[in-house]
Design a protein that fits this description.
By secondary structure, the protein is an alpha+beta fold. The N and C termini lie far apart (69 Å).
């Protein structure tokens, strides 16, 4: 077995590999850029080597710098993680030439399967069903339009060397095909150093289901069942689960066997993933093979008990797989929510900054018999950089059934405290309560269809809303009693905390009466029903763990005048708890109107202006591209919301802007 492994990556996947290597007694070497000097993976590794400036193109994907780090530390093997050089055949070949073991497949397999155009041709030759498309190289936008017309809209424009949603666009007409081709080409060049693009038919109402395979150097290949990855935004997975709620045993077996056959056809070893589109009739079509560890691998580990990183290391060491296909059963259900540094209230645009608070839920077994796991690469006080992928953690839960796994995820998301940046925890929470998701009736269009106008926060149902009302009333009583005990008050001015209150939230008001005792409070509603509330929460604590009506409830809490800011299940609520008299007087107050910004194009995220597409005095039409902003390796095209005339342009290409900086003004 190896004594020392270098991890040619960063962030949570580097930390993930270090954990397994440490358990196996293997020393680890981290590499880092200037931006990652204080990163968690650097702190966790036994050794760390600086490899260059923040941009990945000058550090993490420069093969010579990685090879120099290997030589300097004497590492015997390299784990590439995902992204960066993980599917770069030149890197794998360089390691082989230097006598360093690549913890991944051999370079010919990477070349055959890592290139999406070549892999589709091989899949077709192997008898694997594939989506119709054009596999040749595309010269320019005009040719992309002609090919798209021939295939028939809608089409998917994809980077040949892509992954993680980078360099991917869906086009529904000629204009979008031309525009998408250029953006995909630019993103592919910036992210992978390879700007080749191909186009295929976009299958409507599809599910994205992938098969995890594992092969050794002794001719053994198994599949570790499937992962459902249909909850995607901009072709980037957000929530994954294993197994799929859609597949039956016959389809699972057919997909698994086909995936293994494809892997064997190219001499594949190590962990890999074969991705399929599955239609409503369970017909499946090969998309691509990722010749690396997938981001979402933890859900497979949770339902099989197999440590995929450990098996990758053992396979690289020449060891045979310790199990056969018949040994790999599905045990329970697992969910994964990807925590992204993206603001869901601003159309999921990237958010950067310092994590002023970062408190994940406790990992391990829960009181309900489930499991919580959090793979992360950040820490409280650390900074989220603009140079890399916005994913900062992967929160995973396991339960005996799908419903159990979802309930564990609900509580874990509500417990997860993140402050200082915009993040998508509220959105993930909202999905967990969405009827269509809980039913399993999902497709890759779920987010686009269910959140067509963007995410504005969840609306709590009547039952949960009443539980929050009871919690707020009980918490307010605790806060009021504390205020009556302030020292230094005037004599003969003792303040009594009343029993009658009005709780206002989500546009509704609930008159309640509180009956308190030593163990908690009983909150009675006007209709005669009541809820028992117990908790050890004290004012000032940002997280309240309560039992309401016999069920656990976790709420992120902040103070606002005459109440609380409460966040749970994707809702962000301003909760007022007032006496009946205070409530009556509050109803007479005027509400302040927000400022009118309709005549301005504001920068929706911290980023770099790549292009200004209009001029002063120009008339623009609804949907017309106005500017392109780059952030976290993604190009974002800002379009006109309505017809207008550009009065003044206040930013130029190359400018670095903050959130809400003015880009242009309209007449």
């Amino acid at each position: 077995m190896f004594d020392k492994i270098l991890i040619a990556n960063r962030g949570e996947i580097a930390c993930r590999v270090i954990k397994t290597a440490r358990r196996m007694g293997i020393k680890t070497v981290a590499v880092y850029s200037d931006a990652d000097r204080n990163a968690l993976h650097v702190k966790m590794a036994d050794e760390a080597v600086h490899i260059g400036p923040p941009p990945a193109a000058q550090s993490y994907i420069v093969i010579d710098r990685i090879m120099a780090a290997i030589k300097a530390t004497g590492a015997q093997a390299v784990h590439p993680g995902y992204g960066f050089l993980s599917e770069n055949r030149n890197f794998a070949a360089a390691l082989e030439a230097a006598g360093v073991v690549f913890v991944g497949p051999p370079s010919p397999a990477i070349e055959a399967m890592g290139d999406k155009i070549t892999s589709k041709k091989i899949a077709m030759e192997a008898g694997v069903s594939t989506v119709p498309g054009y596999m040749g190289l595309i010269a320019d936008a005009d040719e992309a339009v002609r090919i798209s017309q021939k295939i028939g809209y809608p089409v998917m424009i994809k980077a040949s060397a892509g992954g993680g949603g980078k360099g991917m666009r869906i086009a529904w007409n000629d204009a979008e095909a031309a525009e998408g081709f250029q953006s995909s080409k630019n993103e592919a060049a910036a992210s992978f150093g390879d700007d080749r693009i191909f186009i295929e038919k976009f299958v409507t109402q599809p599910r994205h289901i992938e098969i995890q395979v594992l092969a050794d150097k002794h001719g053994n290949c198994v599949y570790l069942h499937e992962r459902e990855c249909s909850i995607q935004r901009r072709n980037q997975k957000v929530i994954e689960e294993a197994p799929s709620p859609f597949l039956d045993e016959a389809t699972r077996k057919a997909m698994g066997e086909q995936a293994c056959a494809l892997a064997k056809a190219v001499g594949y070893t190590s962990a890999g993933t074969v991705e399929f589109i599955v239609d409503g009739n369970r017909n499946f079509y090969f998309l691509e093979m990722n010749t690396r560890l997938q981001v979402e691998h933890p859900v497979t580990e949770l339902i099989t008990g197999v440590d995929l990183v450990e098996q990758m290391i053992r396979v690289a060491d020449g060891q045979p797989l310790p199990f056969a296909q018949k040994d790999l059963k599905i045990h329970g259900w697992a969910m994964e929510s990807r925590l992204y540094a993206e603001d869901p209230y601003r159309n999921f645009l990237p958010s950067i900054g310092r994590l002023t608070r970062y408190r994940p839920p406790v990992e391990g077994k829960t009181d309900r018999g489930g499991i919580v796991r959090n793979d992360t690469g950040v820490y409280e006080g650390g900074e989220i950089s603009m140079f890399y992928d916005p994913m900062i953690a992967k929160l995973c839960t396991w339960g005996a059934t799908r419903a159990d796994a979802i309930e564990e995820m609900r509580l874990a998301l509500d417990t997860f405290e993140v402050e200082g940046i915009g993040h998508n925890l509220p959105f993930c929470s909202a999905v967990m309560d969405h009827p269509r998701f809980t039913s399993g009736n999902i497709t890759t269009a779920f987010i686009a269809e269910e959140y067509e106008g963007g995410f504005t926060g969840a609306t709590l149902d009547a039952s949960l809303l009443r539980r929050v009302v009871a919690a707020a009333a009980a918490m307010n009583r605790v806060a009021e009693i504390r205020r009556t005990r302030i020292s230094g008050t005037m004599d003969n001015h003792t303040r009594r905390v009343g029993d009658d209150w009005v709780v206002t939230l989500q546009g509704e008001s609930f008159p309640v009466t509180i009956r308190a005792d030593h163990d908690g409070s009983t909150v009675a509603f006007e209709d005669g029903t009541d809820l028992r509330v117990t908790s050890d929460w004290t004012p000032g604590q940002p997280l309240a763990r309560l039992t309401v009506g016999g069920e656990p409830l976790v709420i992120k809490v902040g103070k606002v005048p005459m109440g609380f800011r409460m966040r749970l299940r994707g809702a962000d609520l301003k909760v007022h708890v007032q006496t009946p008299r205070q409530k009556a007087l509050a109803g007479l107050m005027l509400e302040k109107a927000p400022p009118d910004t309709s005549k301005y194009l504001l920068c929706p995220m911290p980023g770099l202006i790549v292009k200004i597409a209009v001029e002063e005095g120009q008339e623009v039409q609804e949907g017309q591209a106005l500017a392109t902003v780059e952030a976290m390796k993604m190009e974002n095209i800002l379009k006109a919301e309505r017809k207008g005339v550009v009065k003044k342009i206040k930013a130029a290409a190359g400018a670095s802007l903050k959130v809400d900086d003015v880009i242009m003004e309209f007449e």
